[in-house]
Write a structure and sequence with these properties.
Layout: H1 3-30, H2 35-41, H3 45-55, H4 57-74, H5 77-100, H6 114-140, H7 143-164, H8 173-209, H9 220-223, H10 228-240, H11 245-273, H12 280-293, H13 297-312, H14 314-322
């Protein structure tokens, strides 16, 4: 083995170890459950994604495995497995989708693939949350048992919140608690998709700036396009929510992740439609401010915009109207 190969393998091993340990530490910080540590832990997938995008998928996979092994050794094997299933492996899969999916055929098919990355994020989020929910239902012996246990833990918190807001007499605490418990998996799934997409974007920009990204950076506002067939899947999942029970919650998880995917497409529509406007920076800043400060309502509106774009090709029409004959 030559010195060059030794240096290459040594550098890859160093990157994998550093990325894996960094991601593991961010994951452990998030488990401390304070606001600051949760915000920092939000970026746990990014070191693994940087390793996968900039140094190769095998390096990213090694980073995920190192992070899982570190957590399993230092804390508990179950936590290591949880990290691997919810952070490490999804980060590598989503990076692989962005790098390997065919796109940009007119430019040689060598562009970063935002649509494949978002769809993979949606499928991963639905699988992780749906699978975790099914596991807990099996573990406790039924959905209603799990629901009753969660309501027992959550109702004192809801009672305290209603008391502080002086609305304890006007709102049924038990009904509100049940609603929040049923809605929690939906919010977790949607937030995981958003987390993975934000981390992928940041990891891609870091890899691009460092010169390590093997594919060209796309115009995300133009290239992110969820196929309309997923709009039908989203509509069907919304309808199945009314089944109630475990099937209804699983359908809600599917609706939440694909609704968030279409919300991201809605953001892309906003970027395209504000091009050429002098007020574009203010408009986009206001939109992102609403997204950050008033969830989930802006996402619902953006999802409708994204669905309309998937059905009627709003961006393509807008671009065509600006193109001179």
């Amino acid at each position: 083995m030559t010195d060059t190969k030794l240096k290459t393998y040594g550098a890859s091993a160093l990157v994998a170890a550093a990325a894996g340990l960094a991601a593991a530490l961010l994951f452990v910080l998030a488990a401390r459950a304070s606001l600051a540590t949760v915000m920092v832990g939000y970026f746990a997938p990014m070191p693994v994604m940087i390793a996968a995008l900039g140094y190769g998928l095998s390096v990213g996979a090694a980073a995920a495995a190192i992070g899982a092994a570190f957590i399993a050794t230092m804390l508990h094997p179950a936590l290591g497995l949880l990290y691997l299933l919810s952070i490490g492996a999804p980060a590598v899969l989503i990076a692989a989708a962005a790098l390997l999916a065919p796109t940009g055929e007119e430019r040689g098919g060598r562009d970063f693939a935002p649509t494949a990355a978002v769809l993979t994020s949606a499928l991963v989020a639905a699988t992780v949350v749906g699978g975790g929910l099914a596991y807990f239902v099996w573990r406790v012996g039924g959905f209603e048992t799990l629901l009753a246990s969660a309501m027992k833990e959550g109702q004192p918190i809801v009672d305290a919140m209603l008391k502080d807001s002086k609305a304890s007499g006007a709102v049924d605490a038990a009904r509100l608690t049940r609603f929040l418990v049923m809605a929690a998996p939906l919010g977790i799934a949607a937030s995981q998709l958003m987390s993975m997409c934000v981390n992928l974007y940041l990891a891609g920009r870091v890899s691009l700036i460092s010169g390590n990204l093997p594919r060209r950076w796309p115009s995300i506002a133009d290239d992110l396009s969820i196929p309309s067939a997923f709009g039908a899947l989203f509509a069907a999942a919304c309808g199945l929510v009314f089944l109630g029970g475990l099937p209804g919650v699983v359908a809600g998880v599917v609706a939440a992740v694909f609704g968030m995917a279409f919300a991201l497409q809605g953001l892309a529509v906003a970027h395209v439609f504000t091009r050429g406007s002098g007020a574009r920076p203010a408009l986009l800043m206001s939109l992102y401010g609403l997204v950050v400060l008033m969830p989930p309502w802006p996402f619902l509106f953006l999802a409708l915009v994204g669905l309309a774009d998937a059905a009627f090709h709003l961006r393509a029409r807008k671009t065509a109207s600006r193109t001179p004959n």
